[in-house]
Amino acid sequence: MQFASLGSGSRGNATVIKSADCCVIVDCGFSLTETKRRLAAINICVEQIDALLVTHEHSDHIAGVATLAKRHAIPVYATHGTQQKLKLDSQAMQTVCSNSSFTLKDLTVQPTLVPHDAREPVQYTFSANDLKVGVLTDLGSVTPHVLARYQGCDALVVESNHDTDLLRQGPYPAQLKARVGGDWGHLSNAQTADFLRNIDLANLQHLVMAHISDKNNSHRHVQQMLDEFEDQLANCVLADQNCGFGWLVVNKREVLQSKVTAQPKQQVCNAEP
């Protein structure tokens, strides 16, 4: 398996997941032109996309969904609640049940209901070839249900949206600060650290920190949080709003174990948000 991002942050999100036989996009918060440009940067054309999976209806996740789906006849998967905000013909929609996995070619998709201020928000894990990749952003708190679903990942994209002090001192109005920092908003660096302490990191080949706020966080703050896990993580990437991150390959575990040296730590897109 492999995965990449077209961009991650409050101005647009899209993650590409690719198995041997299937290629899907999780969310599309960019215009059609911009989506195609960013796909081309990772050597993917729209015709290769088998499905568009939507997590929730906020504009930074769905701004380009309807146009992309209509123009290129790509099926869209979303929960019933999320579908109410998507301007799509019902024939183009496939309903996602948060309690039930589904299969796209060789890819098994498991939705997970998350606490976020949307109508029926979910996040997804993807399994193929005995490997598991998790995408977990846009949630205000980590529930036992979320913890259980994201155990045993071989690769993980997880939100580290804000630093609590920077949010409190930042430019947002009080109501928006309360929303972002609340149980139905976004994860803080401290919450993300607590999540990492409570999942099994033994098989984790790649950890991507995503949806990093450019007003209430910084790469420096996120990296300081990650210092605690330095000895447990082989490869950690900080996703960027402008360029996301390039392809990360998830190897079979026996192949990984056969390597003489571990992958060096790296950071993609070093621009400070």
Explain briefly what this protein structure is:
The chain has ten helices and 14 strands.
Keywords:
globular; 10 helices; 7-stranded mixed sheet; alpha/beta; 273 residues
Topology, element by element:
Elements: E1 2-7, E2 14-18, E3 23-26, H1 32-41, E4 51-53, H2 59-62, H3 65-72, E5 76-79, H4 80-83, E6 93-96, E7 102-104, E8 107-113, E9 122-128, E10 131-136, H5 144-149, E11 155-159, H6 164-169, H7 174-181, H8 189-197, E12 206-210, H9 219-226, E13 236-238, E14 245-249, H10 253-258
Order of helices and strands: EEEHEHHEHEEEEEHEHHHEHEEH
Give the helix/strand class.
Answer: alpha/beta
Number of distinct helices: 10
Our Rg estimate from Cα atoms comes to 17 Å
In round numbers, the mean pLDDT is: 93
How many β-strand runs? 14
Largest sheet, in brief, is: 7 strands, mixed
How are the strands of the largest sheet arranged? 6-5-4-3-2-1-14
Percent strand equals: 15-25%
Instruction: Please give the share of residues in helix.
Output: 25-40%
How far is the N terminus from the C terminus? 29 Å
Low-confidence segments, given as residue ranges, are 264-273
